[in-house]
Specification:
Layout lengths: L1 E4 L6 E7 L2 E8 L6 H9 L7 E7 L16 H14 L5 E6 L1 H12 L4 E7 L12 H6 L3 H6 L2 H8 L2 H7 L4 H13 L5 H7 L3 E7 L8 H6 L3 E5 L6 H4 L1 H8 L4
Parallel strand pairs: 3-4, 3-5, 5-6, 6-7, 7-8
Antiparallel strand pairs: 1-2, 2-4
């Protein structure tokens, strides 16, 4: 486990690192998750093993610190992630990122193109104000105080199912709420516009069971590639690890 400060008060973002060849792969989790649970089994597969791999827990999540005065916006998370790469002396990495982590990765690549050579985004949030069925939207409907201290966090844990709650319960409630609120608010320009404006290699992974990807033709016209994995939902890396690892390895 390694760590680096990400704010003025000295709060630390932490990651687990596996040695190997470069360019490094950096794995980033989604809202209320952590990176090893969602990606360690992928990085260990034969077609991906042997590469330097970093499993980063975003602020407020997993092993990382959870300062109460941090904003937890997408831009804030991207800044913390940049601190990891700078500390590790890495540039031109491949970022494999899920859901909210994909949005963070887009902001990172937009702000610091020197750090990112390739993006593999699994159902990343591209637009503000996602559907009411999205986990972030449900969390963001609570006022912060009610969610953190009024029972909202406990109610959400009961609603999201055992798989997600296993990692969500390890997330700081304040960080979870602010992260969800930041995800719903989105960025300016939007994550979609940032992604379309990048020149680096971009792959967007979609689970077939999640339905049609909005604006797919627009994304492909910008040079991004969209890969739909049959019989998979939002957590493609769990639903079909072999197909997901193949995409990461470049076997589209």
């Amino acid at each position: 486990m390694r760590e680096v400060r990400f704010d003025a008060r000295g709060s630390r973002i932490r990651w687990t690192e596996v040695e190997g060849a470069e360019p490094a792969r950096v794995y980033v989790h989604g809202l209320g998750a952590n990176s090893t649970a969602y990606h360690a089994h992928i990085a260990a597969r034969p077609e991906l093993a042997g590469r330097r791999s970093l499993f980063v827990d975003l602020p407020g999540h997993g092993l990382s610190d959870r300062p109460a005065d941090f904003g937890y916006t997408l831009e804030d998370h991207a800044g913390a992630l940049a601190s990891v790469l700078d500390q590790a002396r890495l540039t031109g990495v491949e970022v494999v990122a899920h859901s909210m982590g994909g949005s963070v990765a887009i902001v990172l690549a937009h702000r610091r193109p020197d750090l990112v050579s390739r993006l593999v985004l699994t159902e990343a949030n591209l637009d503000p104000h996602p559907p009411a069925t999205a986990g972030s939207s449900g969390i963001a409907t609570y006022p912060e105080e009610e969610f953190v201290r009024g029972g909202g966090f406990a109610r959400v844990l009961e609603q999201v199912g055992t798989e997600w709650s296993a990692t969500m319960r390890l997330t700081d409630p304040l960080a979870l709420h602010r992260s969800a609120t930041g995800l719903v608010a989105g960025t300016h320009p939007t994550m979609r516009r940032m992604l379309m404006g990048l020149t680096t290699e971009r792959i967007y992974v979609q689970g077939e069971l999640s339905g049609e990807l909005a604006g797919e033709s627009e994304l492909t016209a910008s040079g991004a590639r969209v890969v739909t994995v049959p019989d998979a939902g939002h957590n493609v890396m769990f639903d079909d690890a072999e197909a997901f690892a193949g995409v990461v390895a470049g076997r589209l």
